Write the structure tokens for this entry.
Amino acid sequence: MQFGLSADQVLLKDTLDAFLRDRAPLDRVRRFADRDEGRATDLIAGLNEIGLSGLLISPEHGGVGLAPLDACLAAETLGYRVAPIPFVANAVMVPAALMAAGSDVQQAEWLPRIAAGKVVVGAALAERTGARRGAGVSAREGRLYGRALHVLDFEADAYLVADETDALHLVMANEVGLTRRRLETVDRTRPIGELVFEGVRAERLAVSSPQVCQRVIDMGRAVLAADSLGAAQNMLDQAVAYANQRVQFGRVIGSFQAVKHLCADMAANLEPTRAFVWYAGHVLGEMPDQAHLTVCQLKAHLSEVATQVAKSATEVHGGMGFTDLLGLHYWFKRIGFNRQMLGSPERLRMQAAQAQGLAA
């Protein structure tokens, strides 16, 4: 048995990378982060032509109909280019929720519009991964009350919201009683925000259960882990390139044993996580009963590895690594954001232990 990517999957990665290399260089990322654009409409439009928003959506609803593994591959490429794109929620978590729990009418109404890029839908599920003081959403008689923090893909036309019972709801961004506020986070390439609900009208998905909510969260976790893999790989590549051109004491610093060991350790620690990401994507699509445990282990482990790679890659660059000129901090901050969003390594290890019956 050959464990590797298919020709179509390689083509997907190459096509996406070529687009981002041409249309989303570091200068474009910097403009997005500095100007608070909200949405990079030029990039979103181009990627929708490739079919990115409809990656997981079935062809009958206008999508491409690919698998969770393909979403992980796309996320890895987006992370490598630190692309400011609404992907985790809009293209992964929300379609997964609609396909698993939406009625035929809800699917017919929402999925084609998401696939065509006519709407962007954010996800407010962070409270289901960790309690926060003063946050949480309740539902009564078709209306939502409470507060949701760290909403993914915040600059959206609608939101997928989880209440305290793990039921999922769709809410239009312009509904009466909904207050939106942008939050400042370490990663300025990803708009994050807060939603306050004061009797906001909401449409509950047809099927609501903790299992559905957990799967949607696990899909997001896997994609965030893949994004971290791509970001860490880019930082490693930049560190190796810099070590092979920076001259000190008459020699390139890459010839010094200490720098060689630093780069070798980064590569040795990072490379095995690529197979882990692929396996998690496969499990999400083919072995859903094992998905929760696998994804918890994946994100916990990759968060630690990517953090160490980000630290070491910055050190290889010396003082230059901390400057805005090189822009390493965009990847560094993306990795830091992914580490905490939808569960820190500590919380995910506890959940993995609970899933195996090793902890209460």
Notes: The chain has three domains: 7-88, 121-204, 210-355. The mean pLDDT is 95.
